[in-house]
Amino acid sequence: MNFLVPDRIEAGPARIRAAARAVSRLAAERADALDRTGGFPAQDVAHCHEAGLLAAPLPVALGGAGLDAPTMAPVLLDVLAEVGRGSLALGRLYEGHVNALSLILRYASESVLARLAADVRAGHLFGVWNTQPQAGGLDLDPLGAGLLGGVKSFASGAGSVTRPLVTARRPDGRQQMLVVTLEPDTRADLTSWCAHGMRASTSGVLDFSGLPVDRQAAVGEADDYFREPHFSGGAWRFTAVQLGGIEAVFDTVRAHLVATGRGGDPHQAARLGEAAIAVETARLFVSRAAALANDPDAEPARVIAYVNLTRMAVERAGLDVLERAQRSVGLAGFLQTHPLERLMRDLATYLRQPGPDRALTHAAAHVLADDRPADTLWRDPRDANRAGLQSGRAA
After folding, report:
1. pTM exceeds 0.70, yes or no
2. What is the per-residue pLDDT across 321-376, written as a single tens digit (0 to 9) for each?
């Protein structure tokens, strides 16, 4: 298949956004056919590569578009939401790729970064696999033979991600990030992935036992993966993908009401208005979280608390839009022939994230301990200072 997109993205935001729209459009057309066990979106990933999106997070000097730079956060938000709007399964995989490259750019040595950047430019899909069972998790060199032992679970893209960034337990008990070289369609067990939605994300168990590893696989130092505020603050990226999924449901409901001539019904109009509020609430939270998480001068505790609130705000917005979509469209929306059916399943599944109660209570604890009034609780102090200076000049 020939794609009418450039082989390499230039460093301009307009070109990156245009490439994301092209990827999203074609992914949306293929998503229903991939809604099955093992339906990995290989063509969509290839399209991401050809459009330059896989390499886009790399600095321009390494062949990318600098999408991981703090100043590019608004562009990255739009790209993640756009891809998620076309396919949440692809959005999940692409966000994992972006997350892996962000960690590599932050912590890897120059030699490791140069080698992995070449792999990115060659079209390898990266991901972050941290989850593992309580027993049998991944160990680094458990037998002293330079081999890995153990598994990772809920590994999105298992069997297709060829450069996963994983955390492995060292002999001293600490966790070491590694980027492991995998061959496609090897070591993956997808039999447990019988999910309600997000089927094409092919999340499964990956067995690393006996896989050789060397020093050049290591990224950063022990426990760098968990360093704050980047560990918790980086969660804003998956909320951007979720935002795209929420918008896709909203757009589909609105199109249904227009096509059926039911939009003028006052009850339908009220539900659509409420859904519009939820969508915009989610976008405002994600936009603010992206800005705060990419502000090098922001207080780390403030970043973590706001991103945790964003996770909950986006989840609530998604659930509100789903409820109104189901009420507005009715039983027809649950039929496999309706475009809303898969969108709702994928979104409901992707909204399930680890530790939501902990995220909410952590944010609440931060708010309780902060003595700033509500109007300045999340406002950038520099904005307040600038406003004060301007007011003084006006006086």
Report:
1. yes
2. 999 999 999 999 999 999 999 999 999 999 998 889 999 999 999 999 999 999 99
SS (H, E, C) the chain: CCCCCCCCCCCCHHHHHHHHHHHHHHHHHHHCCCCCCCCCCHHHHHHHHHHCCCCCCCCHHHCCCCCCCHHHHHHHHHHHHHHHHHCHHHHHHHHHHHHHHHHHHHHCCHHHHHHHHHHHHCCCCEEEECCCCCCCECEECCCCCCEEECEEEEECCCCCCCEEEEEEECCCCCEEEEECCCCCCCCEECCCCCCCCCHHHCCEEEECCCCECCHHHEECCCCHHHCCCHHHHCCHHHHHHHHHHHHHHHHHHHHHHHHHCCCCCHHHHHHHHHHHHHHHHHHHHHHHHHHHHCCCCCCHHHHHHHHHHHHHHHHHHHHHHHHHHHHHHHHHHHCCCCHHHHHHHHHHHHCCCCCHHHHHHHHHHHHHHCCCCHHHCCCCHHHHHHHHHHHHHHC
* 8 A C-beta contact, residue 64 and residue 32: no
What per-residue string of b and e applies to 288-309 under the rule 16 or more CB within 10 Å gives b?
bbbbbbbbeebeebbbbbbbbb
Beta-carbon contacts of 87 under 8 Å, excluding residues fewer than 6 positions away, are 24, 27, 28, 30, 31, 34, 41, 44, 200
pLDDT at position 3, please? 36
Mean pLDDT over residues 186-213, rounded?
Answer: 92
Helix axes 110-121, 88-107, angle to 10 degrees: 150
pLDDT on residue 28:
97
Pairing, β 218-219 against β 204-207 = unpaired
